[in-house]
Specification:
Layout: E1 2-8, E2 16-21, H1 22-36, E3 43-46, H2 53-64, E4 68-71, H3 78-87, E5 92-95, H4 97-106, E6 119-122, H5 129-138, E7 143-149, E8 156-159
Parallel strand pairs: 3-4, 3-5, 5-6, 6-7
Antiparallel strand pairs: 1-2, 7-8
Amino acid sequence: DPSSVFYTSGSTGEALGATLSHGGLLSNSAAVCSVLGLGPEERTLSPLPLHHIYGFSVLLCHLTRTATLVPETGFLYPQQTLDRMRRLACTGFSGVAFHYRMLLDRTDLRAGALPALRYWTQAGEAMPVELTRRLLETHPAVRLYLMYGQTEASPRVCMLDPAKAARKPGSVGA
């Protein structure tokens, strides 16, 4: 049955309403949660808007696994966001390339430890190769999941295995 309508510009550039089903959203969530190893002990910080399909997908994944999603509305001050991640012992961070660029360029991310953090997820736009490399160099023990999705697909459709991120930084699969 239909669950929600998300608007997307798709490949046409014009707003289109994509009707997503309960089954599609839950199936997609289960697949993403399985790959991430997402469980109830997780605490992910995310500045993504919940009206965007990527942000909604992150929320749904956490709801279905009874994990904690920490919404970040103050990303205008990225150092405060990073400090909050540390203080709350976040195990994950979900964002788009812009968020990672801000964390790398405008915070002490390079110098400071993130002992609880085990993964980053990125989708919503292409991740520049140089940004991927910088992020991996900064925290090599944190797994980086580069993803691709389409709103019509409920939404994330492929991910690059984090073990391949350094060798294939421009890829989102295989």
